[in-house]
Amino acid sequence: MVSYLCEVLQVSRSGYYNYFAQTSVERRTMKHQADERVKDEILKAYQFKRRHKGARQIKMTLQNQYKITYNLKRIRRIMKKFGIICPIRKANPYRRMAKATKEHRTCTNELQRNFKQGVAGKVLLTDITYLTY
């Protein structure tokens, strides 16, 4: 039965038995306990100055404030494992509104720096940023 299940799941039998071996179980529990200790330090840096941070800022806070050095991948792994999520900044609604109304678009360059047309008053240029409305 074990051979059939290992074949279906594409796992070797030795890998299956190794996973349930006593040494492997102890190793996993020791790693989980170490992650719990690191999680407490990460949460302390995460809530430093009452502002939630991402993995890079947590790494810098741990290094500068607490003199603890952890690998960035380790911090990210523990954040993912324990559900520590950095808040994502929301998009600026005014910028989205300006893009939708095309408020700050530029016109095409039809003059191509040919300012002297030979006729007076044919070409008139201005900068509309100085017009009061």
TrEMBL record:
Record domain HTH-like: where: 34-91
InterPro entries recorded: HTH-like_dom (IPR025948), Transposase_IS3/IS150/IS904 (IPR050900)
Protein name as it appears in the record: HTH-like domain-containing protein
Record organism: Metalysinibacillus saudimassiliensis
